[in-house]
């Protein structure tokens, strides 16, 4: 319709200008002949100039008409290009040609209501990782001649680094594991912690001295030199700085690293762009990084010790329920989980909805008695049970329904299997200790099996949340 209107307008302009120019040209010709018959040579020259000017105006008209035609062609090409882009998007999402409009409308409503557009977490995560990498490089230069733990490159873990954080963008906390390695002359040995009653596996890191007599290093051996000689010629031992007895102390490490950040921040290249504020924390290093524009990034650096060569670590991060002793480190699967989601991202089709599903359900469960970790475990199980080709955006409602149904079945059966114990569908790239592969699955809902009243209450609360999901608009 637009093209027809433009074409009609060009024709009207053409007819109007043609009539006008023809009348004007005829008048000019008549006047010129009269001048040739009765006028002077100078007047004749002026007459011929008028005729030429009229002809030039006619040529100008054709130029304008040509430009309008080019504009028409350009509009047609742009419209065709837009249609091709839309078609390519449709083919990428591989949605059915007979897609239910009502279902797509529901997806739009869910996206608006639960704010499913995942914030630009990846770019900010990269900024945080680059900044912390520079910070650790400074620590390597400052502590190269000391016996403090060696700080390995950071590992992004948690919902923000996995890309599904349920928090608002300004409240997102980027959690980074900082693996600790023993300095020269020391070794870390992991021992089960029998001092407390923790709900999850807890261990202590026993720091032992190692003979360095055969190493070609400018250091004295802690085992074969006298204590007086060591005090006189060598810096303080790790056992005397960051340990309580023979065990690595989480709180001492946190205080040491916080002091380092405050004193060494000016040596970090990004310090000219970000102002740092170290927030109170007894077992980690929490930082608020503020740019000149006022935008802030929240970062938590959690200290960790790797179990052998596996993706299972001991973490300084406490549970919400209980604060363990300072020499107690808690077993965590955060690194293996982050690795699993990276594996899924590589295998899944473009515009996969699995992170949106996880974000939606996490926002729904906020403030309830349900653990976000139980939800995350459910989604990880379903990602191995349902083909990844069926996690495209058009399947969002179906996959959300699958998640809620799976979780409800687990509540009914009082059993939700831990993802990393005895799981035959585990991707090969995730490294687990041999004991994990042979172990019986751990039940995350064991507390419901032991308390029928708690299970009944959980079922009622879940049904209310499920009703709110679909009918609480």
Quick recap:
The protein is of the alpha+beta class. The protein has 15 helices and twelve strands.
Question: Which structural category fits the helices and strands?
Answer: alpha+beta
Mean pLDDT: 79
Number of beta strands: 12
Distance between the termini: 40 Å
| Low-pLDDT residue spans | 39-48, 85-99
Into which percent range does the helicity of residues fall?
40-55%
Number of helices: 15
Note the beta-strand portion. 5-15%
- What is the CA-atom radius of gyration, in angstroms? 36 Å
Global morphology: globular
The SSE order reads: HHHHEEHEEEHHEEHEEEEEHHHHHHH
Describe the largest sheet: 10 strands, mixed
Describe the structure.
This protein has 473 residues and is α+β, with helices and mostly antiparallel strands. It has helices at 2-38, 41-93, 101-113, 121-142, 158-162, 227-233, 238-241, 250-264, 334-347, 354-365, 372-385, 396-413, 434-438, 446-450, 452-471; strands at residues 150-151, 155-157, 173-181, 186-192, 202-209, 243-244, 247-248, 274-279, 285-291, 296-306, 313-315, 329-332. The strands form 2 sheets. Strands 1, 2, 3, 4, 5, 8, 9, 10, 11 and 12 form a 10-stranded mixed beta sheet that branches. The chain has a two-stranded antiparallel sheet with strand order 6-7. A hairpin with a 6-residue loop joins strand 10 (296-306) and strand 11 (313-315). The protein is globular, with a radius of gyration of 36 Å.
């Amino acid at each position: 319709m637009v093209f027809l209107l433009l074409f009609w307008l060009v024709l009207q302009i053409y007819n109007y200008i043609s009539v006008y120019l023809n009348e004007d040209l005829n008048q000019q010709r008549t006047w010129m002949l009269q001048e040739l018959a009765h006028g002077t040579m100078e007047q004749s020259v002026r007459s011929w100039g008028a005729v030429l000017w009229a002809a030039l105006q006619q040529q100008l008209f054709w130029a304008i008409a040509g430009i309008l035609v080019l504009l028409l062609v350009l509009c047609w090409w742009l419209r065709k290009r837009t249609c091709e882009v839309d078609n390519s998007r449709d083919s990428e999402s591989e949605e059915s040609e007979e897609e239910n409009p009502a279902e797509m409308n529901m997806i739009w409503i869910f996206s608006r209501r639960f704010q499913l557009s995942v914030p630009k977490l990846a770019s900010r995560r990269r900024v945080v990782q680059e900044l912390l990498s520079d910070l650790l490089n400074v620590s390597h230069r400052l502590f190269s001649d000391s016996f403090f733990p060696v700080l390995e490159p950071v590992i992004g873990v948690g919902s923000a680094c996995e890309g599904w954080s349920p928090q608002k963008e300004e409240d997102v906390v980027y959690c980074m594991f900082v693996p600790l390695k023993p300095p020269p002359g020391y070794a870390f040995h992991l021992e089960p912690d029998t001092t407390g009653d923790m709900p999850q596996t807890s261990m202590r890191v026993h720091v032992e001295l190692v003979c360095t007599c055969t190493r070609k290093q400018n250091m004295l051996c802690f085992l074969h030199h006298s204590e007086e000689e060591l005090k006189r010629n060598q810096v303080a031992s790790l056992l005397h700085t960051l340990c309580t007895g023979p065990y690595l102390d989480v709180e001492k490490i946190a205080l040491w690293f916080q002091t380092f950040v405050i004193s060494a921040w000016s040596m970090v290249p990004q310090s000219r762009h970000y102002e740092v504020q170290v927030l109170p924390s007894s077992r980690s290093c929490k930082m608020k990084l503020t740019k000149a524009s006022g935008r802030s990034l929240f970062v938590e650096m959690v200290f960790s010790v790797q179990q052998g060569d596996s993706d299972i670590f001991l973490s300084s991060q406490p549970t919400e329920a209980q604060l363990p002793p300072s020499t107690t480190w808690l077993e965590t699967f955060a690194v293996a989980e982050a690795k699993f989601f990276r594996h899924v991202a590589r295998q899944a089709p473009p515009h996969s909805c699995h992170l949106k599903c996880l974000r939606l359900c996490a926002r729904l469960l906020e403030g309830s008695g349900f653990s976000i970790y139980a939800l995350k475990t459910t989604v990880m199980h379903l990602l191995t049970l349902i083909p990844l080709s069926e996690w495209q955006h058009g399947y969002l409602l179906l996959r959300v329904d699958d998640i809620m149904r799976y979780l409800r079945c687990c509540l009914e059966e009082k059993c939700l299997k831990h993802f990393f114990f005895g799981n035959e569908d585990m991707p090969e790239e995730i490294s687990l200790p041999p004991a994990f592969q042979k172990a019986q699955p751990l039940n995350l809902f064991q507390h419901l099996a032991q308390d029928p009243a708690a299970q009944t209450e959980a079922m009622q609360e879940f049904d209310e949340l499920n009703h709110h999901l679909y009918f609480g608009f």
